[in-house]
Amino acid sequence: MKILAVDTATTGCSVALTDGEHLLAEINLVSTQTHSRHLAGMIGEACRLTGLAVGGMDAYAVVKGPGSFTGLRIGVSTVKGLAEAAGRPILGISALQTLAEQAAASTPLVCPLIDARRGEVYFSTYRVIDGAIVERHPEDVLPPDQALHKIDAPCTFVGNGAVLYRSIIRDNLGESAYIAHSSAHLIRASTVARLAWKRLGNGDSDEVAHFVPAYVRKSDAQINRRSRCS
Question: Which end of the chain, N or C, is more open, meaning fewer C-beta atoms within 10 Å of its C-beta?
Answer without folding.
Answer: C
